[in-house]
Amino acid sequence: MSVSSSARSLIPQDPAKVMVIRDVTPNITTLSVPFLRFGHIKLGGRGTLVKLQTGNVAVFSPVAFTPDVQTKVKSLGPVKYIVAPDIEHHIFVSTWAKEYPEAEVIGMEGLPEKRENDPATKGTKFAHVFSSGNKLDLKISPEFDAEFSYEYFHSHQNKELVFLHKPSRTMIEADLIFNLPATEQYSKTGVDARSGILTKLFGSIMNTRGDAIWHKRFLWYGAGGKDRAGFADSVRRINAWDYDRVIPCHGDVIETGGKAIVSKITSWYTESKH
């Protein structure tokens, strides 16, 4: 397994036993797994497979490459794109890149260097690297760009790449918003996704319920606090997208009403905040 020793403590020992593979649409499949942050906080993790109209497949935030995942991918088509959606969501990129050496790896500034500094992850070539300077001009390929819009939140602390799958009106994102608890992701573990003091505390902040005031504060004072103007520009661009579903890496899929929820949580960046 081509993952760093520090990452091994974050992922389940036997992913095949606890992974939930689900077809969200005929062309989108989610790979949902347990995931612990700091060894205690149940965030859940999720990879997403999208079959393009050309027959090629894009994988976002790849998770463990289990036999069941391999079978599912074979039923969809060849993997052409491997996307690390932020500077933290890259644990299994090497595994997938070795399995599909012809695939184009997509990431953001700083990630290739971060990976090269770790013997367990070095050596993967990135075909497309987003930066604050090229973000408005970088294109992936005609087939990819025909189906996806994308925004690089260079002002987010984790350097987020957010994608819109236009045919299904689905946003795919990593750490822009969370939708805790991670019910689906822990559904095969026999463990309550809400259990644990730290999980309950973090879950009370990183959820989409009600006015989501603590989630708003997290984005305003934390994730986007160092460059609010830049973060606001990115928010305005995704607000122009047409989407309904949101597939986050952490927490449950928002099957409908997702745009209103994202707009609510990011609203301090598009309105006067006092």
TrEMBL record:
Pfam families: DUF4336 (PF14234). It comes from the Eukaryota. InterPro entries: DUF4336 (IPR025638), RibonucZ/Hydroxyglut_hydro (IPR036866). This is Uncharacterized protein. The lineage of its organism: Eukaryota, Fungi, Dikarya, Ascomycota, Pezizomycotina.
